Amino acid sequence: MGEVVVITGLAQGMGKEVCRLLASSGDKIAGFDVDADSVAVMKKELDQIGCDHLIEVRDITDRKGILEFRDQVLRKFGRVDTVLSNVGIGFFGPFEEIDLERALKCLEINVIGAASIFQAFIPGMRKAGRGKLVAMSSLVGRIPFPFESIYSASKFAVQGLVESLQYEVAPFGIKVAIIEPAQVSTGFAAKIHVLPKEGSPYRDRARRFINRDNELIKEATTPLKAANKIVKVLRSESPRLHNQVDFMSSFFLFLNRVLPKPVRDFILINHMDIKV
Fold first, then answer.
1. Burial letters for 162-184: b for 16+ Cβ neighbours within 10 Å, e otherwise?
2. With 0-12 CB in 10 A as exposed, 13-18 as middle and 19+ as buried, what is 236?
3. Helices 13-24 and 223-235 meet at what angle, rounded to 10?
4. Of 53, 76, 212, 243, which alpha carbon lies 20 to 30 A from 273's?
C-alpha cells in the first residue's frame, strides 16, 4: 500500500531525489516548495511515475498556510506516516559583519520551519500511536565551522529541538531522527559564498575558506547517494537518532568524539585552509 510521507523543500536538491525514490517505490507524497517552477516539474515527474501526491507551492514561514496544508493532506490521505523537514537555507559570513535581520530570517526558516511542520502533524501521529519525524540538520549542527556562525546556530537549534522532542513523543509511538550531512554536491553552498568587502580583516581567510569548500564539494557525495541513505532512515522502524550520509560527516564526528578540543581545532583550521 505504501506509506504517506510529507516532505518540505521537496522540489530541489536532496529533497527532490528523496521524493523520486519514494514515489518510485509506491509511497504517497505530500509536500511543498517555495519555488513554483520546480514544483511544476516535480508534479509532472510524479504524474509520470504514477504516484499519488499532493504537491503545492508554499512558504515554510507561513504558519497558517502550514496548518491549511496539513488539513488538506489529512483529508486526502487520512493519515501521515513520516514527516521529513528538509527545507533550509544557508548563511555565510564573518559574524562581526553579518546583517542580523538576514540572520533572523535564516533562523526562522531553518528552526521554526522545522518546528512548524512537526507541530502540525504530531497530533494525528499521537492519536494513531505511530509515526516518524525526521529533521535535516548538518555536520555544523554538532561541529561549528568558521564563517557559518548563524547557519551553525540554526542547526544546533534543530538538534536541540529534536533531541528534546524525542522524550515528549516517544510514549505515543512517535520516533525521531536527525540527518547530518557534511557536504553534498548541490548548488547549496555556492548560493551563499560571498566574500567580505574589500578592507575587511576577514576577507583573506574567508576567501581561502570558500576556495577550499569549493574543492571539497567537487568530491562530495551526490544528492542521489545521500537520498538513498535518507530513504533508509525514513523506512526504518526504529531509526537511529543521529544519521550521516557521507564519509566527511562520519569522519569529523568520530574525531570530535575521540580527540581533545585543541587537536580538533587544529585539524579543522588546517582542513579549511584558514590558518593565520
1. beebbeebeeeebbbbbbbbbbb
2. middle
3. 60
4. 243
Give this prediction's pTM. 0.94
Would you state the cell numbers that stand for residue 105, as one nine-digit string?
A: 530570517
pLDDT in tens, 44-73: 999 999 999 999 999 999 999 999 999 999
C-alpha–C-alpha distance, residues 73 and 81, integer Å:
12
Q: Are 53 and 30 in contact (CB under 8 A)?
A: yes
CA nearest neighbour of 231 among 149, 162, 132: 132
CB distance 54 to 98 below 8 Å? no
C-alpha to C-alpha distance for 15 and 30, rounded to whole angstroms: 12
Domain of 232, CATH number, reads: 3.40.50.720
Residues of the domain holding 28: 4-271
